[in-house]
């Protein structure tokens, strides 16, 4: 079992027992070697147990799942007096608690965590995960007779509702995980359709690492007098971020060079489109590097197989689209590379958050060509970070681009007092020494 980001596991000085959790959950947490609650757990669990609505702002890897799962499990267990769910199934395909997540993998991961937290609850709580890409029939069967906790992606859930396999009219607790994504254009219509089917009176818990305008607007309409908890992660992170400039057309060569020179054994590479995954995999293969791909056009069994293989270390290089950027808990992932920059600054944080989890040293590298310079500056500004442009020996950018690099290195709005300082170097060359960070671990 892993622990979350070191930033977020600072001793909270609290125990799980103090938060008001019941004995069978405490026993399970002890077994899982969760020694103390993370900050979001310590601050949020008592309010969630008390039935309050909640807005939780916390990075991925902060222990969000247990924050909502433990109180939900406790409520259901107590409501049923600990009786097994086989004897307490109500008539009708109703759902007690609904957790909406943006990706299939996250649905599976969250449901697995909930089942694990429920190990000593005497089978009182049944948890079902539904998501697209797999047969709908097994999911229909699982939902028959009611579900205590349903973890779902919106599209498949709507399909199941239209076949009468499940009803949301008795939902008591709704969790929106990765809320910023759930409220983005791709999901908002489905989400609105689902919300219309749920009772107005319910407990709503909303978790998001970032709070763009849509999320803020929604919190006002969806939540009633919510407790707001923002977990800061301002202390030094174990994740090192770097950005390498490279000439157009030399990115793949640089990537191959970095992989080979640093002998990375587990590396996640993000690209912007499904066919770029295949394209890059082919180009790397010509350079002697075998890579697997992970994107939305792959069948669910292939997606699961690839992800399991990557997690176990069998697959060393994985090229993925942003479906891999959210919430996935890949233990000890040492390196993430942005081969293409993500479109949104928030996605940059989600992508790099796959590494440096669990207190491990992590490295996130972005490879940028001239045409990416401006976009990277925006990513920096929005995320309040500022990285030095570096070059790797043997991949120095053409002289003509040097001025552009210098311009790109200046922040869009310079922080107060920094205006007069001159940069010492145009851009640092010979980044190679640094890179061994992941090898020496
Ligand atoms: P999450 O943010 O829910 O994806 O959790 C990230 C990782 O932290 C998972 O591997 C959890 O098992 C682990 N975790 C969550 N809470 C704790 C805790 N209080 N102590 C140790 N590990 C935890």
Task: Tell me what the structure shows.
The chain is of the alpha/beta class and 441 residues long. The chain contains 17 helices and 15 strands. Helix 13 links the parallel strand 10 and strand 11 (317-320). Helix 15 (373-383) runs parallel beside helix 16. It is elongated, with a radius of gyration of 23 Å. Bound molecules: adenosine monophosphate. Adenosine monophosphate (AMP) binds at residues 1-4, 34, 37-38, 41, 60-66, 329.
Topology:
Elements: H1 23-31, H2 39-49, E1 54-57, H3 64-79, H4 85-88, E2 95-100, H5 104-117, E3 127-130, H6 136-143, E4 147-152, H7 154-162, E5 173-176, H8 179-182, H9 185-196, E6 203-208, H10 213-222, E7 227-230, E8 239-245, H11 251-262, E9 267-270, H12 274-286, E10 292-294, H13 300-312, E11 317-320, E12 335-338, H14 345-352, E13 362-368, H15 373-383, E14 389-391, H16 399-409, E15 428-429, H17 432-435
Parallel strand pairs: 1-6, 1-7, 2-4, 2-5, 3-4, 5-6, 8-13, 8-14, 9-11, 9-12, 10-11, 12-13, 14-15
The protein binds adenosine monophosphate (AMP).
Residues 1-4, 34, 37-38, 41, 60-66, 329 line the site of adenosine monophosphate.
Strand order of the largest sheet: 10-11-9-12-13-8-14-15
Taking pLDDT < 50 over at least 5 consecutive residues as the criterion, the unreliable ranges are 1-11, 414-441
Strand content: 15-25%
| Structure class | alpha/beta
Q: Major β-sheet, in short?
A: 8 strands, parallel
Number of helices: 17
CATH architecture descriptor of the largest domain: 3-Layer(aba) Sandwich
Radius of gyration of CA atoms, rounded to a whole number: 23 Å
- Count of domains: 2
CATH class descriptor of the largest domain: Alpha Beta
CATH topology of the largest domain: Rossmann fold
Helix content: 25-40%
Task: Let me know the number of strands.
Answer: 15
Catalogue the ligands: adenosine monophosphate
The named CATH superfamily of the largest domain: P-loop containing nucleotide triphosphate hydrolases
Overall pLDDT level: 83
Distance between the termini: 20 Å
- Choose one word for the global shape: elongated
